[in-house]
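Entry for the shared binder. Reason: the reviewer on the internal report wants the predicted structure included alongside the sequence.
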Amino acid sequence: MNSLIEFLTFDDPGVRAVSLGAMLLGIGAAVVGCFTFLRKRALVGDAVAHAVLPGVCLAFILVDFMGSLGWTDISPKHPLALIVGAFVSSWISLRLIDYISFKSRIKEDTAIGLVLSVFFGIGILLLTLIQHGSSAEKAGLNSILFGRIAALTAGDVLLFGAVATVLVFITLMLYKEFQLMSFDEEFAAVTGLPVRRLELTLTTLTVLAVIVAIQAVGVVMTAAILITPPAAARYWTERLPVMILLAALFGALAGLTGAYASFAAPRAPTGPWIVIVLTGFAILSVLFAPRRGALARQLRQRRNAGRIRHENILKALFHLGEQDDDFYAARSSDDILARRPMDGTVLRRGLEQLRRHGYVRREGAAWALTAEGRMRGARITRLHRLWEVYLTQYVGIAPDHVHDDAETIEHILTPELEHELEALLDHPQIDPHARVIPQKHG
């Protein structure tokens, strides 16, 4: 607890730099990553991250060479120099991916794999040459593979903060254009938007986001900080502005938590902790998001299965009433099972639930429909027979082949569709099997 209080007070300038830097990196990458995620180009972030390495190494070699000649006194590991090299290398990799995809029969995912492996292989080769060279600045350069956020200085934070601010600002300025392009690129082109230029702009922002994220988690895990926040946020909302805000929040919280983990346990690297926290957000979203989460989907499936089971029981009781012309007579469980085969335990549980809802009543060991239960049973029967009429008249299916399809569709037809279907069929009275179709108020 004391370590948390000490961390939150930001007394240590180093802790302050790392925390602010991690939060800014998380926000910038997450905002741009939303559009990369929506355009289904998640692998592009991974390709760009791996393509960064040769650019960084070449920038290091070039600046080191210029320094040896006395042309500059900039450190070969200066963040600005490495960012420029990374940007050029990443840009070239993306243009190669697009060129290969459009000018050959190779699909985009294959092109991404080719470019990723080639650029990363070249980067590892250059990094090995640097490590075996005589440069005094080579120590620590390999931190780009796994991130070096724990070593950020105030100057680094200003630089990365400026880049993150530019990313967010441009994204907000072009929000409507990016939104339209992400959801319907063809319509965006028809409306006159410069789709190609917008793609290049978004590509540039993605490259910058990746370069910034590399400072936190390195080449190996950059795709996680770019894509995981949007992926987690997508589970919580259908609205893009809310998704962007949630993704930025997840990125900021992950950066802050990763910085605290490194502060509390100095041997724990910050980058992996950021990715672990983001993964935790993603897992929680996948499981517990209110509408799209696995738990919510499971509950909906259980509710739908229960509703279908209840409607089938009511329909069976209604059909028994049609046979005897007595809809309120008590029926035994065996009578219902003969009409609608199912597990006996499931039937008893369903009947008890229907009794609690007022659709059936119990008479000793038998069950009878209530007035409300009869109306509901009549409606599901009505939908079934209307759909059978539609399939025979408009689809041309033989009457003896329409039952199974009607069994499925009867449970999902809304009152609006019911009204349209009835009007289309001109209010039929008899189904294809010569059975009376129950009327709405009959």
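Summary line for the report: The beta strands are 360-363, 366-369.
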